[in-house]
Amino acid sequence: MKESYKDSGVDIDAAQRAVELIKEHAHSTLRPEVLGDVGFFGGLFQLKGYRQPVLVSSSDGVGTKLKIASLLDRYESLGIDLVNHCVNDILTCGAVPLFFLDYVAMGKLVPDKVVHLVKGMAQACKEVGCALIGGETAEMPGVYAGSDFDVVGFIVGAVEREQLIDGSSIEEGDILWGLPSSGLHTNGYSLVRKIFGIENDRSPLDMTYPELGRSLGEELLEPHRCYYQVLKPVLPIIKGLAHITGGGLVDNIPRVVPKGLAAEIDKSSWAVPPIFSLIQERGKVSEREMYRVFNMGIGMAVIASPAQEQALMGQLPGLRSIGRIVRQRGEERVILKG
User: Fold this and answer.
1) Which distant-in-sequence residues (6+ apart) come within 8 Å of 72 by Cβ?
2) 134, β-bridge pairs
3) Exposed end of the chain (fewer CB within 10 Å): N or C?
4) Burial of 32 (0-12, 13-18, 19+ CB in 10 A)
């Protein structure tokens, strides 16, 4: 009997259908600097308008939020998550997003699922003027079982050398502000799934909680907020930005604060969204662990001089002063108070 690639679990025709279906969404994001067409072996981008450009790159996934999307059969928000997470990462350096690439791997390639993922990516790319320049779709039976899949994003942005934000000018007395998150974003889902018993059964996701005002599934699929458009006008007066992802406030703020300094945070300065309180109570999770796993309602930390308070507050809706930069004493780089 003659064997074929399809017999081994890889459907080349399905892969080609997926490519054709996603081209329309990718085309809608292209910028004038993009050379060539979607589908070539490499994405071509001609960098223009910079005197001393610094390229800033990042790569990330959406973690086990994938499992929530699979159980609910909703995928567009994952594409939005992926782009927004990557955009926020390079934004901490002051970079403008230029182009984005994706990698989607599945046990069994389902073109419709890929299209929904890419549609979400294209939507998020268009909102920040970023080109979805290419990607890779892989069918990998034996590596991914059944409907299992993974999705990864890669982004490249640019910033003028003199406008690079690296935290080096942060000093004692600077103010720490916080911009609100839209929920869990893309971190802490393995712990959440364990606490609520979410594995292969979607019933826990369909439960409605009064404090949330919607089902748990809807809350957990809320897209990762993008901060690019709101922060872009004030980047010149910002000394440091910390994207609050895995590791929470405790581990991410020290990545931008110079050694010898620490961030003193007043936990009572903002209202922690109900989803985090629900997780903590249901799982009996310690407060310290909550602030290391989750963003606790602060998706981006902004550090600037006290002299910039009026300018920042006037430009950034929802901005809250949550702490200050102090001299480090002992080993702690983040001091939680309140």
Assistant:
1) 202, 205, 217, 221
2) 101
3) N
4) exposed
What is the distance between the alpha carbons of residues 44 and 34, in angstroms, rounded to a whole number?
6
- d(C-alpha 160, C-alpha 208), whole Å: 48
Predicted confidence band at 24 (pLDDT cuts at 50, 70, 90)? confident
Strand duo 131-139 + 96-106: pairing: parallel
Instruction: Tell me which amino acid residue 209 is.
Output: Y
pLDDT at 38 over 90: no
Give start and end residues of each alpha helix (H) in 9-136. 12-27, 65-72, 76-91, 111-128
Contact 132, 121 (CB under 8 A): yes
Could you report the per-residue pLDDT of 222-246, keeping only the tens digit for each? 999 999 999 999 999 999 999 999 9
The DSSP result for 158-174, as a single string, is EEEGGG---STT--TT-
pLDDT in tens, 82-115: 999 999 999 999 999 999 999 999 998 888 999 9
Q: Give the pLDDT score at 26.
A: 81
Q: Provide the 3-class DSSP secondary structure of residue 90.
A: helix
Query: Where does 232-273 have alpha helices with state H?
Result: 248-252
User: If 0-12 CB within 10 Å is exposed, 13-18 middle and 19+ buried, where does residue 152 land?
Assistant: middle
Entry pTM: 0.93
Indicate the angle between helix axes 65-72 and 76-91, nearest 10 degrees.
160
Closest CA to 54 of 159, 168, 130, 154: 159
Pick the closest to residue 222 from 283, 163, 334, 297 (CA basis): 297
CA distance 333 to 257: 9
